[in-house]
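Q: Can I see a sequence and its folded structure?
A: Here is a first one.
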Amino acid sequence: MKIYLAPMEGITTYIYRNAYHKYYGGIDTYYTPFVANRTLKSRELRDVLPENNTALPLVPQILTNKTDVFLEIIEQLKDMGYNEVNFNLGCPSGTVVAKGRGAGFLDDPTELEKFLDIIYDKSPLPISIKTRLGIESLYEWEDLLKMYAKFPIKELIVHARTLSQQYGGTPHMEAFKMAQDMLSCPLCYNGDITDTDTYGKLLKECPDTTAVMIGRGAIADPELPVILKHSNFNFNQFCTSSTDNNEKIFNNNISEWRNNFMDYSKFLSFHDEILTGYRDYMSGEQPVLYKMKELWTLWSQHRNVDKKILKKIRKAQSISAYQSIVKQIYFNGL
């Protein structure tokens, strides 16, 4: 099973990706948060510069609904040495959708097909696509799949939700199965893979799955990708039978592996490298604190952090105070 780290705006920056790759790994391909400007500069440029991503298998993601902008960006990325790009048809942000970009582009399938026809004809690089199922209804999905079947898509990454679902509600695994039945291009599943249970459910419902993209689940629990890779053999065995005994054996194996793998000192080193990276990159303490507090919103979903300590983290006004609070977490035995 291939595992990809989903692009998350403001979170999976090159600073985060490099630290993640160094301390945890388990990721076959990283994707950059989207680039959208005709001429790459400032933040977007820093995030895709090869010298900032030397050890990473990385695919840049492009967000636009203008073919000339797409082709100008892809030429710049090609000159940097990239050999693939990803096209964003999944972002549900209101400001993005209002401009007919990201998942909002799915609302105009005629124009989208014209766009895809041009970029696949003129692009110097292979293009993968990250898509949602449609705007409001699953009835839109079959027509989208028929359109995608017309193009040489390098890989279709399916976020198994509609735009209207945003990041809530239950992902539609049956829609991913429909894509497996209708398309011949490589496919990747995306949507609420947060632990071994959700991963096992996907493999039982869609056993032919060969790639998954994980976002919030991998941020909250950095150990998750390696654990899922370790679990592959057990899952394959488990999926052939539904007996209670097999499930018990599987769960025991995962628990033993997790207990052996978890290393909180490693997490602290991972945390400190990200903090140092942002201190070197940003001007002033407040932007750095904002970044770290944003990460703790996700990290605390998996780690048993006392709510009082989390409150102190959110209220920290200096990096020195913040660091003292974080150390308290580990002195308390996390």
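Q: Show me another, different protein.
A: A second, unrelated one:
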Amino acid sequence: MTTTTGRQGIDGITRWLLLVAGLIFLMVLVGGFTRLSRAGLSIVEWDVVTGVVPPIGVDAWEESFAAYRQTPEYRLVNRGMTLAEYQEIFYIEWAHRLIGRIAGLAVVVPLLWMLWRRRMTLRRSLPYWGVAALFGVQGAIGWAMVSSGLQDRPSVSEVRLTVHLLTAVGLLALVSWMAMNRMGVAGQPATPKIRAVAKWLLVALVIQLAFGGMMAGLKAGHVSNTWPLMFGTLIPAEALANAGSVWAAVTGPVGVHFIHRWFAFVVAGLALVLAGAIYRQPGSSPLLRKTAGWLTVVVAVQIVLGIAVVILGVPKWLALTHQGLGVALFVIALVVVHATRVSRVEEVAVA
């Protein structure tokens, strides 16, 4: 396969897409901080428009706090919290929602402007409107997640939290892929094996991110603070057996923790196989070699971070770094998949 390039470079639309991708990444990070701070249930309503402005004045804050005091989280976890303490977690969740709104507007407003100025045709704008629609879906999933923790439990559903995370990652992947398409590189020399392993690595990372979401929702990082042993053994068979069923075992805190800590080495193995295949292939491009190198380094750092998070008892900033690096690793793998796709000339619209 030969390297074919279309119109290369970073034009205005590409920079716009990269900005949106950066905002999505920031949204994921702030979402992780929100979860680690137990702030996600502090706002008990979903006001898309009026929710942009936080409560103003003592009466408004008292009304918001009174609504929070009716939630299971306040009654079972935060009983006795002061108004000042409530304001701290409120602003964290408010910031998370605000960034989501800004990211959505960062898609819609420039898109409307380009249509108005005829910088883009309506037909060519349809994929970008699809991105805007997905932001709306992501917001709805986020509210469904929050609402699951406002009725009978002091925490959100771990399944809904995982869906919320994976939807954000999928949105990041879509926007990043669109940006890479516009950069004009049609394909780097790659064997079918390299392309296949790259795709399997991406699938493995999605699975690992899903179990990471379940870890967060179940607070399973606190199940064991030792590594490589759990409860004094490599395989906590007794703890898994006590779950009652195979499904309960693999979706409960112990099973999710066990799978997440060891599936990381499946990811590492695929990354090493991919890097080795790229470096052994004659004529591998500098882009692929450099990306493969970063891939192996980031996987190694990510595993070390994961072990440290467990041993140190899930410190907030270390856990947040672990989450952010996991998403970054997914993006790096996405770059490899894009770079090794079957060569074809991409038609790139002029902005």
